[in-house]
Amino acid sequence: MQPLRNFLSFLCLGALSWRAVAGTTYFQSSDYSGGALGLGPYQTYKSSSSTPSAWNFVVPYNDSTSDQIESGLIFVAPRGTNVNSPGALIYDKTGELVWDGTHFGQTLTFKMATYKGDPVILLWTGSVAGSGVGSGYDLILNNKYEIIANFTAVNLNGSLADFHDIEMTSNNTALITAYQAKTWDLSAFNITDGWLLDSVAQEVDPSNGSAIFTWTASDHVDPSSCFASPGTTGTSADNPWDFFHINSIDKDSAGNYLISSRHCHAVYYVASSGDIIWTMGGHNSTLTASDGTTFAWQHDVRWHNDETQISLFDNEGTAWELDSSNSRGLLLDFNASNNSFSTNKQWIPYNVTVSESQGNVGILDSGNTLVGWGQIPYFSEYDANGQFLYVVQFGVGDVQSYRAYHYNWTATPDTRPSVFVETDGSNTTVYTSWNGATEVDTWQLSGSTADSPQLAIPISNTSRSGFETAVSVTDSTKNFTYFQVAALNSDRKIIAYSNFTASDGSQQDPAANQTVDSSSSSGSNSTGSSSSSGSIQVVVDSRMITAVFVAVWTLAFVV
Ligand SMILES: *[C@@H]1O[C@H](CO)[C@@H](O)[C@H](O)[C@H]1NC(C)=O
Ligand SMILES: *[C@@H]1O[C@H](CO)[C@@H](O)[C@H](O)[C@H]1NC(C)=O
Ligand SMILES: *[C@@H]1O[C@H](CO)[C@@H](O)[C@H](O)[C@H]1NC(C)=O
Ligand SMILES: *[C@@H]1O[C@H](CO)[C@@H](O)[C@H](O)[C@H]1NC(C)=O
Ligand SMILES: *[C@@H]1O[C@H](CO)[C@@H](O)[C@H](O)[C@H]1NC(C)=O
Ligand SMILES: *[C@@H]1O[C@H](CO)[C@@H](O)[C@H](O)[C@H]1NC(C)=O
Ligand SMILES: *[C@@H]1O[C@H](CO)[C@@H](O)[C@H](O)[C@H]1NC(C)=O
Ligand SMILES: *[C@@H]1O[C@H](CO)[C@@H](O)[C@H](O)[C@H]1NC(C)=O
Ligand SMILES: *[C@@H]1O[C@H](CO)[C@@H](O)[C@H](O)[C@H]1NC(C)=O
Ligand SMILES: *[C@@H]1O[C@H](CO)[C@@H](O)[C@H](O)[C@H]1NC(C)=O
Ligand SMILES: *[C@@H]1O[C@H](CO)[C@@H](O)[C@H](O)[C@H]1NC(C)=O
Ligand SMILES: *[C@@H]1O[C@H](CO)[C@@H](O)[C@H](O)[C@H]1NC(C)=O
């Protein structure tokens, strides 16, 4: 991995000073994990107000394991009381920010998909109720981060899209979740005037907002057949009993739906008629289970390998109950010929503990797997043999991410790069960043004078080094009033111009002849990752050298 190689050569060269201007990543830092840096350590920049969570590699990757790590970027959405700015974030694999989407607010489902042939982002927006469900809108963003669809649940007496899932089908329809409070006879629980929080799975066409399929849990599952009793809930419309708790929907080639119920500890395979074809897990399983397959309070249930395997995040606990010593990622083999299932493999966390909520399992094409640990602020990538490739901690206190993903994502935003000019005595430094851009290789710095503010006079070229790049202005050119950067891609083509910006913050638009062809800069079919060729900015921690050179790995793979 490039940054680590750079870091190793940096150690060898003994170059002990560098500008710690860009993001900060930690390696096995006890200051980080012990809370000395705060409960939600975050990075800051000069050219951007973004404050993404800083990472601590509790298991770092090295030159040998990095070759097994797929190219691509990490999608997480930190939330919780110790998160400075909750919301969607894309990072490169070194922990450098790529895109800050926190202007959309706190989110839960935040993932990549293919919509009408193009790579897109799916992002839930809205408000989260104390009961652990959401009400809002699902967005589709293109690779310029423009909103190309904004849709929600329909025909549910005003209930809007919940945050638990958005899954795009091959027919360009979206599978979404919704919750609906309704009156229900709960006299069996000694509750008069009872209220149920029903779960709904809906298939919606984002292009026109219409519903193609609507499945309501209480029509098919007896509320008293699950694991969460009403307790103190069920008494009013504001305090309804969430008996089912839908949290994922998948659809297969046969047109049937795979619906996860956390509170029933069950996965329902549902026909387009709404009828349940089979039930996996819970009190009413209709399949034959092998040992070790029991799951509880699970999330993120997905088909794999032509519907012969199912992955899920087995929480093994909830706020009021622990069923095991740890959560796990779980891959089940499903045998349709005799309606049985068995364990293929499981992924055990580095921090062997129960994540009481959230979590996901992302099996990559190579066989590597990225597991997001939900309520506890970790994600880990495993090789195909179940060995850790790396483990990242992204917070210490109440820092959570509903899911974590590893994707190839390329984007060229429909905005201008940001520039901040800092003058310190006789020195001038130009800081630049471009939120969400993945195709920048080099920043070309130009200057101009107050007489001709839009006349760009080239100064220097600097390799992009993470989210923010700092460029020192040499003595002979610091008599410029304004500075501008042009973003060059790896083909040395200019894909964006910034404003001309002065040290007092005043700005001038790019010149009229500084135009770029946005269609060719979008990189829609390039494979990719952030094309950073710069070095990772690190804070030296006394344990970091150990982190890099000592073999640190834990075999946590159990068949
Ligand atoms: C999505 O649509 C809803 C309803 O029109 C609107 O309130 C909301 O602001 C939209 N979201 C965004 C990010 O534009
Ligand atoms: C309902 O109340 C009756 C009488 O107090 C009691 O015997 C019964 O156990 C209660 N049932 C439940 C489900 O709490
Ligand atoms: C589960 O089984 C119980 C007992 O057999 C039954 O009362 C209940 O209705 C069943 N629930 C479902 C969802 O089939
Ligand atoms: C796509 O639409 C076709 C035709 O309506 C249907 O047969 C198929 O099941 C659908 N597939 C999915 C994944 O929705
Ligand atoms: C493991 O996670 C729990 C819950 O977040 C936390 O309290 C504990 O400190 C973590 N342990 C380590 C070694 O990080
Ligand atoms: C990204 O694309 C490369 C090249 O096609 C591929 O090897 C890699 O597996 C992909 N990464 C992910 C996370 O899908
Ligand atoms: C560029 O300048 C325009 C005003 O001309 C301003 O609206 C815009 O926000 C500036 N863009 C950036 C990225 O600073
Ligand atoms: C200007 O930069 C030089 C070289 O990096 C440094 O030695 C000097 O201290 C800086 N001056 C100020 C005023 O920061
Ligand atoms: C800036 O100063 C240098 C050295 O004095 C001079 O050669 C150069 O022409 C000046 N540039 C501008 C744009 O005035
Ligand atoms: C824009 O016009 C100026 C003045 O004629 C010229 O110096 C500059 O090279 C032009 N820039 C581009 C990108 O064509
Ligand atoms: C897509 O890839 C093809 C083949 O590599 C290339 O010819 C074409 O220019 C690419 N298109 C874009 C928009 O990058
Ligand atoms: C790299 O990390 C792996 C797994 O953590 C370990 O097995 C291996 O020994 C390490 N290699 C080096 C050169 O440190």
Automatic annotation (TrEMBL):
Residues 504-534 are annotated as: Disordered. Residues 1-22 form the signal peptide. Residues 518-534 have a biased composition (Low complexity). It holds the Pfam family Arylsulfotran_2. Keywords: Signal. Residues 504-517 have a biased composition (Polar residues). This is ASST-domain-containing protein. The lineage of its organism: Eukaryota, Fungi, Dikarya, Basidiomycota, Agaricomycotina.
